[in-house]
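dude i think i finally got it to work??
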Amino acid sequence: MRIKGSICLVIYYGSLLFCQPDSRFRPFDWVLYKGSGSINSISEGFNYAYIGTENGGVKRLNTFSLVFDEPITSAQGLKSNTATAVHFDTETGFLWVASTNHLQYSFSREGSWFPLTFESLGISRFDRIRKIGSSIGYIWLELKSSFVKIDHSNGNLIGVFSKPDEISIKWSSGPYDREKKMADIFLNYSFNNGWISTGTDLIDNLGRRSRITTGFIGKHGNIYVGNEYGTLFQTTKVMQTFDPIVPDIENFDISAIGQMNDILYLGSTDYINSKGLTQFNTWNNEIESFIFEETINMTPTPIFSINADENELWIGGDEILLFHDKKKNFWRTLGQERGLPSGEVLDILVDETHAWVASSRGLSRISRATKREDPAGFEYLFSEIPVYELENYGNDIWIGAWSGVYVYSKSSPQLKNSIEFGQKLFPELMLRITSMKKYDDAIYIACNVGIVKYNVNSSEWELIINAVQYQNKNIHSLEIKNNNVFLGTLDGLVKINKKTGSMKEYYFPFIGKVNEMVLLDNILWLGTSNGLIKFKWKTGI
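look at this
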């Protein structure tokens, strides 16, 4: 069955349209993690504080554990990841989220989002919902110069007012404008981790100033403050000391993923907005960031590849390598003076003695001891040739290049072209190698003819999936799970059963371009142009 785009079902619930990515999936089968940008609004529900952000949808902070749970984004059916205002209505249990041109609500507070257009609410498309509140029977919207009153159970428009005609409205937070209660808190409360407040701005331990964007006092004494760069500060009336919390990864796109046990290391080509490298714990969603601006010897660069183990990080940038000694917490930047090939570092493979570096313009071998080039002797064969992928199998280094597949045997040592060994069960030449994956006793290769499998035990080459089946799309990443082959493409994810040939396409708009994939158990992690995506893959879906 082919899955294409978003599935929308018309529900006669007033004049509303019920939309979600796909009705067969539960609300959090797909999760998008993305940099927050400015924190615009804060509301408090039964179990969560809901944080409306400029770029990352709605973040959910568990009010008991103070740990962030999975965010609400376009992956759950929001029209936009820009949440200008958010509000939890205690009368109905509905969660309301405003974005550009839409207001949405959900009775489950997770999926099943009902959208209302600005036009249906009498709001100009140039206006912005700044704040949302609720009374016993109504929802109130504060705009730039007016207020909109709607029914809290179906979203029907009641009227537009210059000021509310009700007094008992419970408002969630909107843009901070020196409200007296919050201003008094900034005057009397302190901030941890070197942060200080001026009343309108926050200054971090490096002297960088950021604007306070919103503040909220919860019903049980919890207090929240957000700034323009996406940091949330939380305290209570008892503690009176704000702790800074980053709600999500700081990356807006993910071009590279390095994996070590339950930890993912995330890098972006947009290194200006994404700021550096993110360490993401998949078990508990804990985040640690290495910010270029804050980290000594960490040169700012777009990130194209990451290799991680327990002791070291190797980061591939634009004509440079970033190296991190975890035990000593020490960073180094390695450039072409150490023998790196020019161009973008597309892949890194680390063995016992060397780091093999593949780039858009060649290949090099770097000594782990000296951090300098230690040539294997055949690198000149790849001069000015894009080398996309490196894979290690036993004592062999597999090299996937634009010109074909090559294997370097460290025990010989010698370099062989794939046409020189094994029995080939198809006539076409393998060129334009874009991805490789070791799985069981085989190497899987994405190339011009499709997905090719090399069985190490039988020494046979087999074309298991013809490129025609997936419309000859360029494959950026490859993962294998039993009989299922996952292909990351320019416009989404494809899953093909290598036994039956059945194919499913996941082209939801929130996915974007899939740059990298990591499969942990039955969770598929996607590094995409829109951020980090968790797909709770299940057999049969």
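Confidence is low (pLDDT under 50) at residues 1-18.
im so relieved honestly
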